[in-house]
Write a structure and sequence with these properties.
By secondary structure, the chain is mainly beta. It has no helices and 11 strands. The protein is about 0% helix and about 55% strand. The strands form 2 sheets. Strands 2, 4, 5, 6, 9, 10 and 11 form a 7-stranded mixed sheet that branches. It has a 4-stranded antiparallel sheet with strand order 1-3-8-7, with no helix packed on it.
């Protein structure tokens, strides 16, 4: 059984920090793309940060300079360090793993989400 478990969310004051983790289980192959998405109340889900297998990272403009995505490939674990949090960062954060192995199949899985609430 393959699953991702997101954790680390919580309630923090504006200006505070949180570190989210996404732990994979049941995966015995390397993962190319690991992502964090978030969905604010009443808003569409958006991509927040992406980590590719070649080491490239990408961030939505609103979090650049404040958030850092990282990964531990040996553990197939994804992290999101969030600093200088703002109320507009509030939402449910989801992790996502994706790899296309061609004839070897595909991995496309989502975590259950972890709530981040930033008070003003």
């Amino acid at each position: 059984h393959v699953q991702l478990q997101a954790s680390g969310g919580g309630l923090v004051q504006a200006g505070g920090s949180l570190r989210l983790s996404c732990a994979a289980s049941g995966i015995d192959r390397s993962i190319n793309e690991m992502d964090w998405y978030r969905q604010a109340p009443g808003k569409l889900r958006e991509s927040v940060a992406r980590s590719s297998g070649n080491g490239r990272t990408n961030y939505v403009d609103s979090v650049k300079g404040r958030f850092t995505i990282s990964r531990d490939n040996a553990k197939n674990t994804l992290y999101l360090q969030m600093n200088s949090l703002m109320p507009e960062d509030t939402g449910i954060y989801y992790c996502h793993f994706y790899s296309d192995y061609g004839d070897g199949g595909e991995v496309n899985i989502w975590g259950q989400g972890t709530q981040v609430t930033v008070s003003s």
